[in-house]
């Protein structure tokens, strides 16, 4: 499994010729180095509907003729925009060609911009993505919550991507505890330094992770991690 970081909360995950992108906020993202027209994937996966996660979903899904996998209400919204969409819900999952997706809970909010209005986008979620026998956990936007212990007990998580920005998600202190509860050996920090109010030092966070026996991977945009 190869995980490439494209800034904020966007990750591209690949294995054996199959690739998916999670939360493709590329256009307007000051910390990315890729154009959405260059993205070639088999699916788009969304954790929730906020603009800094929904991003270029519709363009990418159309140009690849691939499905958008999302919580049910958000999938319906995408379907109305003319793309293939597969609606799941929290605790549910599905096997696809070359990968498996299961949604976990996340404590946040979720709505999607539609012109001058906001549309309810169902519950936010985290994503357990399994490819090639390895599981990657993308927590989406979330607060720390106790059932992260259960997620860690029930799954062998090779790598977790956790928000550290604070203000809108959990910050570094809570993310350190989340990493312990998830029983993962690697963490990619997400959702920091993109805009005012979520400034954090990912290197310092990863140094503190190392003291707990977890490898922190503060990837720069375009950098990859192979599991």
Automatic annotation (TrEMBL):
Provide the Metallo-beta-lactamase domain boundaries.
7-191
- Keyword Hydrolase part of the UniProt annotation: yes
Q: Which Pfam families match?
A: Lactamase_B_3
Q: Which reaction does it catalyse?
A: 3',5'-cyclic UMP + H2O = UMP + H(+); 3',5'-cyclic CMP + H2O = CMP + H(+)
GO molecular function list:
hydrolase activity
Q: Which UniProt keywords apply?
A: Hydrolase
InterPro entries of this UniProt entry? Metallo-B-lactamas, RibonucZ/Hydroxyglut_hydro, UPF0173, UPF0173_UPF0282_UlaG_hydrolase
Gene3D superfamilies noted in UniProt: Ribonuclease Z/Hydroxyacylglutathione hydrolase-like
Family recorded in the similarity comment? Belongs to the UPF0173 family.
Q: What does this protein do?
A: Counteracts the endogenous Pycsar antiviral defense system. Phosphodiesterase that enables metal-dependent hydrolysis of host cyclic nucleotide Pycsar defense signals such as cCMP and cUMP.
Know the name of this protein? Answer: UPF0173 metal-dependent hydrolase HII30_07880
The taxonomic lineage of its organism, from the top, reads: Bacteria, Bacillati, Bacillota, Bacilli, Bacillales
């Amino acid at each position: 499994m190869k995980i490439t970081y494209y800034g904020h909360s966007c990750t591209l995950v690949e294995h054996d010729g199959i690739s998916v992108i999670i939360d493709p906020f590329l256009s307007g993202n000051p910390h990315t180095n890729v154009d959405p027209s260059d993205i070639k994937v088999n699916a788009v996966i969304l954790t929730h509907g906020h603009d800094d996660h929904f991003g270029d979903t519709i363009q990418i899904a159309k140009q690849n003729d691939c499905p958008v996998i999302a919580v049910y209400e958000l999938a319906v919204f995408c379907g109305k925009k003319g793309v293939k969409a597969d609606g799941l819900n929290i605790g549910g999952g599905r096997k696809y060609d070359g990968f498996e997706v299961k949604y976990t809970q996340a404590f946040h909010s979720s709505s999607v911009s539609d012109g001058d209005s906001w549309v309810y986008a169902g519950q936010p979620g985290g994503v357990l993505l399994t490819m090639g026998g390895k599981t990657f956990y993308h927590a989406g936007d979330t607060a720390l919550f106790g059932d992260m212990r259960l997620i860690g007990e029930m799954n062998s998580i090779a790598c977790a991507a956790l928000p550290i920005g604070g203000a809108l998600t959990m910050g570094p202190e809570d993310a350190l505890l989340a990493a312990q509860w998830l029983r993962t050996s690697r963490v990619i920090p997400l959702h920091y330094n993109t805009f005012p109010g979520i400034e954090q030092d990912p290197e310092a966070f990863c140094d503190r992770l190392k003291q707990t026996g977890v490898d922190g991977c503060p990837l720069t945009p375009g950098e990859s991690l192979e599991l």
